Amino acid sequence: MSALNTFEEEIQDRKRKELAILNSLLDEKKNRVAQIKNEKLNEINEKSENEAKNKSQREFARITESARLEAKKILFDAINVTMNSALNSIKQELKNNTKKADYKKTLEDMVLYAKRYLGEDIIIKCRESDIPYLKEKKVTLGSSISTMGGIVAVDKSQSREIDLTFEELLENHEDEIKNFLYEKMI
After folding, report:
1. Are 151 and 129 spatial neighbours (Cβ–Cβ below 8 Å)?
2. Which of 24, 95, 110, 158 has the greatest CB tally within 10 Å of its CB?
3. pTM exceeds cut of 0.90
4. Given this model, what pLDDT does residue 136 score?
């Protein structure tokens, strides 16, 4: 029986050794799986953090750009309101200018300018209230026009015309006026 016991002990011993080897392999595999799991989790966390960081940077840039554009729009609107107000003030000042004594000199200069470009024989169209003054200057008068001030001169053949009304002069020089005002505002 002793040989049988020895044989049984050898089998048990071999079993324990094989079991120890299998447990060791199992522990190695568990450790390797845990290591791979931790690497993947770290990789996923890092990727998520990078994506979140990129998204937040894009959102920050979008919000910043939107705010910048809104600020520009507000500034542009304020400049436009100021420009319109200034142009309205200029129009009012031009209307008031027609009541001043030097307005007659302005009309005279306009007539001389028109004669220089259209010839001596011209027809002048003006406001009803300017007719008496221009009659004194012995110019041919055409129909009256509705304007803030100034004249429209036409040559006798009525093929050429110069519009020297305040509205037309203001419109023709509006860009220059706006640039001048813009420079003064900024």
Report:
1. no
2. 110
3. no
4. 83
